[in-house]
Amino acid sequence: MAFPKKPALTLAALAAMMTAPDLLPAFKDYRMLDWSTVPHVLDFQVRTRSDDPIAVEQVRLRPDTTPEKADAPKLVDTAGDLQRFYAALHSTERRDDGAVTRILHYGDSPTTADLITADVRVLFQKEFGDAGHGFVLIAKPWAWYGHRGVTVKGSGWKIEPANTAELRDGQYGLGVVSFRGGPGANSKITLSDAGHTKFEVAWLSQPGGGMFQVAADGRMIGTVDTASPEVIASFQTFAVPEGFKEVTIGGVSGRVRLYGVRFMKDAPGVEYNSMGVNGAAITILARNVGEEHWGEQLRHVKPQLVVINYGTNESVYAKYVDTAFEHELVRAVKRVKKAVPEASILIMSPMDRGQRMLGGEIETVPPLNRLVALEQRVAAEYGCAFFNTFEAMGGPGTMGRWYTAEPRMVGADLIHPMPSGAKIVGNLLYKSLQDGYRRYKLALAKEKFGPPPAGQPEPGSLRQ
Q1: Residue 352: CA count within 13 A, CB half-sphere
Q2: Contact 347, 385 (CB under 8 A)
Q3: Is 207 helix (H, G, I), strand (E, B) or coil?
């Protein structure tokens, strides 16, 4: 019996669509199947359990990495800028009264979805205590905006990220996104963690400002008047009952401009704030946000560490990398130093960014190595710490290996990590900071008790 004609034609067309990108370079971006992954599927092996699954995964993805190269320092802090951050962590670890260590992590699209930052937050709070989730935007600027353990819903807002806003006045709040609304605008933020004891709403007071209402778990707890004779960033903290889980903002009259809600707990611990903007470049901090306004936001939070994590979106523009990126990064660093000189600054390089070549292989975009080197040089020249994410995750070609891994660890754009890939990067960052903190405590012990006896290893000694 002959094979039915229509199914045969359908299968033939599908086979042609799957093979055309490998035969015709013009169609390389429409690849449906990466044939190089087939042997990995056929050679599937059940993984064994490990006490350190992240380390095992890195070895599997990068078997050519030698122990010497794997141990090379990825966190560089020549000027000791992280000492202030470590001192705050030490106070938090001792559970000193009111000892909250606040971290602000500014980044691009992965941070927008709380990727990497969520994993670092969990690790810090597990080790040092949970001081609250931190800052959350009042609505979703992008469909994929999200924070782990938080649900955000909002409607009726004119949403303006600082890098794409029509109103270019620099007044974009801590999270560098502004929300303008009138009657009918509303937001609801729901937490999975019922342990928060207070939250803070941030808005812009201005002439002609309207009013909005704030409710906690459906109970009205305050009405805010945003009218003011001058334009000024404003904040109000609301105490909430035990078991609280939901903030509602609504009842808007007139015109208001809001930024976000910051969730806190009355206990020593770490507050890890994730501030991601889709498509962001370093210019969002260097130019798009107003220096005085943003500086006021930073001073209000009083962070012990500010992470500047950009470069992915700039890394395909060779001329920009070679002529402008360094200047813009320096400008952003100077702004942070001026606003919060007591805070440590960590410049965090972008992850690898892959591109598919004509032959189908995946390689690192050429300008990325130069951009990472520029970031490290700026960190050294301006006394900041530097974390080489690119090298820590495996260096050149990592996204190619992540894309062909099973399960896949980066999306088809070879830029955005899957949750498993983001977890690896988050663990690498946390481990590097934790190792530096252990050395800080070892130095304190030496000052107090002197060095250990000759021949005895130093407790907790780790390579940087």
Answers
A1: 24
A2: yes
A3: coil
